[in-house]
């Protein structure tokens, strides 16, 4: 069972485009705060606030590497979010399969009406 608090924190963190961009960057490998702040038109403290949200949600971790404190992507909460969403994908797939069957049933009589009659019999 997925913790609703952790799921709430994950989706709240993912709601912001800057935080999603940071996660995309971290999917390529570890990065320092300065490296993460570089592509954004915002101050390093503002990026640090985004990092704290991501860290609180468990989506990133930081460790000490000499003078650096690089950030690292932690994918487990993302996997839990995908698992939660997967149930809804299955729901929509079942709905689309029923719609496909209905459309096939509706199409079948129309195909028979448009087929030329064979007068040779």
Judged by helices, strands and strand pairing, the structural class is mainly alpha
**Amount of helix:** 55-70%
Strand content: under 5%
The number of distinct helices, counting runs of at least 4 residues, comes to: 5
Our Rg estimate from Cα atoms comes to 25 Å
Main beta-sheet annotation: 2 strands, antiparallel
Average predicted local confidence, pLDDT: 90
Q: What distance lies between the first and last C-alpha atoms, to the nearest angstrom?
A: 66 Å
Task: State the total count of DSSP E strands.
Answer: 2
What is the overall shape?
elongated
- Contiguous low-pLDDT stretches (5 residues minimum) are none
Topology as a string of helices (H) and strands (E):
HHHHEEH
Q: How does this structure look, described?
A:
The protein has 121 residues and is mainly alpha-helical. It has 5 helices and 2 strands; from the N terminus they run ααααββα. The chain has helices at residues 4-14, 17-26, 33-37, 44-56, 76-114; strands spanning 60-62, 71-73. 13% of the residues are buried.
Keywords:
elongated, mainly alpha, two-stranded antiparallel sheet, 5 helices, single chain, 121 residues
Fold topology:
Layout: H1 4-14, H2 17-26, H3 33-37, H4 44-56, E1 60-62, E2 71-73, H5 76-114
Antiparallel strand pairs: 1-2
Helix pairs in contact: 1-4, 1-5
């Amino acid at each position: 069972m997925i913790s609703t608090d952790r799921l709430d924190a994950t989706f709240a963190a993912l709601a912001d485009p800057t935080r999603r961009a940071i996660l995309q960057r971290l999917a390529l490998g570890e990065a320092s705060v300065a490296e993460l702040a570089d592509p954004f038109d915002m101050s390093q403290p503002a990026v640090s606030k985004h990092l704290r949200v991501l860290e609180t949600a468990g989506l990133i971790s930081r460790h000490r590497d000499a003078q650096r404190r690089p950030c690292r992507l932690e994918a487990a909460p993302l996997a839990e979010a995908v698992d939660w969403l997967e149930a809804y994908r299955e729901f929509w797939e079942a709905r689309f399969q029923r719609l496909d069957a209905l459309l096939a049933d509706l199409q079948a009589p129309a195909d028979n009406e448009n087929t030329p009659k064979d007068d040779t019999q």
